[in-house]
Specification:
The protein has 176 residues and is mainly α. The protein has eight helices and three strands, in the order ααβββαααααα. The relative contact order is 0.13. It binds zinc ion.
């Protein structure tokens, strides 16, 4: 699959999961994990650069996230792990893959192909937390002469400034 096809597939997946779960606005990732029958746990990681991890637990999963991080950052981390869950572990959508997954370790120390999967999980998180239509509508309603204070977007979606900016770049609204 070419990378732009893959990009579209990730957008479509995030959208279809949103349609089924119908999350609140801004998205409450705790609720999302609950709806997906997963467990969530705050943790203090020895390595403070680790934001979170995901494990398969029986037929479901557990996400741990760094309790030192802000709620906005943790929300993104959890959405990122949900990206791994569907894209790289096959939860619900690819039973064969799901069956074959025993350990999924979200860390560059342990896995090959880490950077591609990281990039994809981040893309999923951005699309899930900031749907294209909502993002564009917000910009239309709150921008002035095609300019907007990005912190307003971040606040609207309850994400970090960087996450809001990156999503806008992906959508072709801001320059890379
Ligand atoms: Zn990851």
């Amino acid at each position: 699959m070419s990378s732009s096809k893959r990009y579209q597939a990730i957008e479509a997946l995030a959208e279809s999961i949103r349609k089924q779960l119908y999350p609140s606005h801004p998205v409450d990732m705790q609720e999302v994990v609950k709806s997906l029958k997963g467990e969530l746990q705050e943790e203090s990681f020895e390595d403070s650069t680790i934001s979170g991890k995901i494990e398969k637990v029986g037929d479901a999963f557990k996400i741990s996230y760094n309790k030192e991080h802000s709620p906005q950052r943790s929300g993104f981390t959890i959405a990122h792990e949900i990206g791994h869950l569907f894209l790289h572990m096959g939860y619900i959508i690819d039973p064969e893959k799901w069956d074959s997954i025993n350990d999924y370790c979200d860390s560059p120390k342990y896995r090959q192909g880490y950077s591609v999967e990281e990039y994809e999980a981040n893309h999923f998180a951005g699309a899930f937390l900031m749907p294209k239509d909502d993002y564009e509508n917000f910009l239309r309603e709150n921008g002035h002469n095609n300019k907007i204070d990005i912190s307003l977007i971040a606040e609207h979606f309850n994400v970090s400034f960087d996450a809001a900016l990156t999503r806008g770049k992906w959508l072709g609204i801001f320059d890379w």
